[in-house]
Description:
By secondary structure, this protein is α+β, with helices and mostly antiparallel strands. It has helices spanning 10-16, 19-22, 96-99, 170-173, 176-185, 204-220, 286-289, 366-371, and strands spanning 41-49, 52-57, 61-66, 80-86, 89-95, 112-118, 121-127, 129-137, 141-142, 154-160, 163-168, 231-239, 242-247, 251-255, 270-276, 279-285, 301-309, 313-321, 323-331, 350-356, 359-364. The protein has two domains: 10-220, CATH 2.40.50.180; 231-371, CATH 2.40.50.180. The strands form four sheets. A six-stranded mixed β-sheet has the order 8-1-2-11-10-9. Strands 3-6-7-5-4 form a five-stranded mixed β-sheet, sandwiched between helices.
Amino acid sequence: MNLNPLGTDPLRRSLFRKTEKIVPPEVITSPQVVFPEIPVRLEVLTFYLGTEEFGIEVNRIKEIVRLVEITPVPKAPFFVEGIIDWRGEIVPVVSLKKMFRLGEEKYTLHTQIVITEIHKRSIGLITDATAEIITLGEEKMKPPVETIPLHNFLFAIAELEERLLLFLDLNKILSYEQTALLEMLTSPEEAIHPEGMEKKELTREEEKFRNILHQRALGLSKRKIIEEKEKKQVVLFSCSEEFFAVEINQVKEVVKPLKIVYLPSLIPYLAGIINLRGELVPVISLQELFGLIPITNGKMRIIITQVEKRGEHLVKIGLLVDKVYDVVSLPVDTFEPPLVTIEKDKIDYFSATAHWENKIFSLLNLENIVKSI
């Protein structure tokens, strides 16, 4: 009778046996370093692990969700936090902070999980906070050199004004074999269910925190009615505690507030223009457009969108918003007509209303907003 928890499979034993002792103290080892050719232009999501800023390619992201209750799995590698039920699919969740030896995870209600695709499998990556969506040209990206920490896991180093962005190569984070074994190790049968976990006394705040994560997990686990249904992917954001969204294919990037130059205008909601890498982009204040009470929270962003104006040509417009939340995919038939409570002179600025988790948001009709300028 084999009592070894790693089983008899030699590949499984070689990859995960005595992981903590084999791994160098500063970082785990990537199986192979092959730097791919850097493309001309890429859209990148930036995020933080502690104080370090990283980036991954947007088209590798399936969804960004808030932290939910994670079910631990025994015998998994030290950097695997457990599994979550992502809309009917069991997804392993990886702590990049532990993998890269950047310290222990300190979860908050603002912690996010980025659902990505690695070797055709869904993998969740824990981040402290997602920052912005940016477009990188090849002139800003350089191949990582061996003297840079974590170079084995990087696609490129990007130079952004006064900071460097570590651009991760997801295929180097986990090899194909590791991803396949991770899927076996994190099966629902291997998981430690809540009733089987050791009970410990929780403070009132800890109990409240756990209950919130549990409720979020229940909402996230709801299966999509028909997986093959056409979906609409949107960027969700807020202005003065009201929730809005724009279609992802209209979003070019999300940037931190730049200097907005005011221009005399008859349009009160035109905040001014910004210089975006040499291109002048008008910025609309949605608070002014919709008559909302301004809120200053230190998390303001400008969403750079591109839409067609009067069927002539594509124009870029910046939307000044309080906070960008998530990129979500919803079935097309979940979108309903705009709320009847919207003022008549503003109704044309909306194309739909939808529910996501416990939020009701309005989908903006950017073409009509641009026509009004």
